Amino acid sequence: MPIDGLGPQIRAHRLKRRITGTELARRAQVTKGLISQIERGTTVPSLDVLSRIAVALDMSMAQLMEAVDAGPDYATSAGLGALPYDPVVRVDRRRSVGFPKINQVYESLTPTLAGPIEFSILHIGPLSAEATLTYRHQGQECLLILEGALVVTLGDRQFHLNVGDSMAYPSTIPHSYRCAGEAPAVVVMAETPPAFLDLLSAHLEGQGR
């Protein structure tokens, strides 16, 4: 699924920083033509390219993913005052990004990644235990299994979760998750503070993708 509005968002940040398309391409180590295609929305960048563009713009992945339709007229008519975004995320308007190396697809369920909590759906495909990433960071995480089954390793313990099962834990404890069996797991995750995209990108960057 493409990330709606991502191209114009990249262009807006590039212009704000007074960086030409040629210079952005040089910094991100891609062609000027690719930058043009991305900004016009005719091409969806890979995670690798998206990460390099974020670095070239001196931004985090989460900041770059802030491609939302602000809808100021909607906010005013709904009596929402100065709310700078539409609070509703339609099912066909979710921001999403795939991580082929670890067989995951991330879908954001929140209209902005700048808030205090991150709400998302993870599609987690089969992956060996050795290839599964382990995370440890500040905050709290909650999981709910919508489809399939998930094995969550928390510290030195493993928890097997099935459809309808949920789990919450401090994310300061080392943790990892992978689907159990060959069927993908679909998981709703709530996390505070928002960190998933940047953490995942950092992990993959460290592994050289």
What is the structure about, briefly put?
This protein has helices at residues 6-16, 21-28, 32-40, 47-56, 61-64, 72-77, 196-206, and strands at residues 96-99, 104-108, 118-124, 140-147, 150-154, 157-161, 166-170, 175-179, 185-192. By secondary structure, it is α+β, with helices and mostly antiparallel strands.
SSE order and pairing:
Layout: H1 6-16, H2 21-28, H3 32-40, H4 47-56, H5 61-64, H6 72-77, E1 96-99, E2 104-108, E3 118-124, E4 140-147, E5 150-154, E6 157-161, E7 166-170, E8 175-179, E9 185-192, H7 196-206
Antiparallel strand pairs: 1-2, 2-3, 3-9, 4-7, 4-9, 5-6, 5-8
Explained architecture:
- By secondary structure, the protein is α+β, with helices and mostly antiparallel strands.
- It folds into two domains: 6-64, 434 Repressor (Amino-terminal Domain), CATH 1.10.260; 90-206, Jelly Rolls (Sandwich).
- 28% of the residues lie in helices and 25% in strands.
- It is built from seven helices and nine strands; from the N terminus they run ααααααβββββββββα.
- The strands form two sheets. A six-stranded antiparallel β-sheet has the order 1-2-3-9-4-7, with no helix packed on it.
- A hairpin with a 2-residue loop joins β5 (150-154) and β6.
- The longest helix has 11 residues, at 6-16.
- It is globular, with a radius of gyration of 18 Å.
